[in-house]
Amino acid sequence: MKLVNIKAMLEKARKNNYAIPHININNLEWTKAALLAAQAKNSPLIIGTSEGALKYMGGLKTVYNLVLNLIEFLKITVPIALHLDHGSYETCKDALKTGYSSVMYDGSKEDFLLNLEKTREIVALAKTTNATVEAEVGQIGGEEDGVIGNGEIADPEKAKKLADTGIACLAAGIGNIHGIYPPSWQSLNFEVLEQISKKTGIPLVLHGGSGIPKEQIQKAIKLGISKINVNTELQQANAAAVSEFVLSGKIKQGKNFDPRKLLAPGTKAIQLLVEDKIVEFGSENRA
Ligand code: 13P
């Protein structure tokens, strides 16, 4: 099966009040786990690669071929999109050339007019390969040197201008944070989310999907979130499972030093958590 872009799957999700998981992959095991989870739950899935993960995994071509070959080898029949996460202008162009079915151009640190102009250019380029584009308005927050930032809350007027470029979906800063949410964090900004959703009429993306309480996830989906990015929670699940394997002494038994045995508990934990996310986000049986 070939890769699909994210337009149809996200529009269907928006219309029917659920969200598609965007799973960041980090290695071969992660990719297998995510694909097997989607197949087991009969859900569409977006496989995301950040620029850091691309560097680690051997670049765009390696990842593109890995994902395509695993889809064939594992007999995956549900719709799978391969998406560049937080791409620069140049990496977006390279990803489209390589065969990625979707890219996120992250111009959120640029001056807004430049963000708009470059997003427009990437949209035009993506059209030539039937690929889709995600853009970003406002900024996803994070914690830096102990200073807790709320991220730049997105401006609905700017969101509308980006939506009008022909993007498939829009990531908006609504108080969401990449990584672990600090204990002082309270809530997503639902008021701004609702305004942006009404103004743009397109599927919206929730970055920093790890660690957000379930009720807030459900409310966000109702208000227009159709794609939820998850990475940190899966990293934590993998680390916990591998740690348990080592610290419990299982690694000392038989040939458990074999990397295929050592990494297996982590891979299983990733698969089970992706399956849970599919159920939580409502995309089960929506393939
Ligand atoms: P988390 O690592 O917080 O789950 O965020 C993932 C993400 O938004 C990738 O773009």
From TrEMBL:
Keyword Zinc appears in the UniProt entry: yes
Residues at which Zn(2+) 2 binds: D106, E136
Alphabetical GO biological process terms: fructose 1,6-bisphosphate metabolic process; glycolytic process
Chain sites annotated for binding dihydroxyacetone phosphate: G179, G208, G209, S210, N229, V230, N231, T232
Residues annotated as the enzyme's active site: D85 (proton donor)
Keyword Zinc: yes
Bilayer-spanning residue ranges: none
PANTHER family from the UniProt entry: D-TAGATOSE-1,6-BISPHOSPHATE ALDOLASE, D-TAGATOSE-1,6-BISPHOSPHATE ALDOLASE SUBUNIT GATY-RELATED
Name of the molecule in the record: Class II fructose-1,6-bisphosphate aldolase
Organism: Mesomycoplasma flocculare
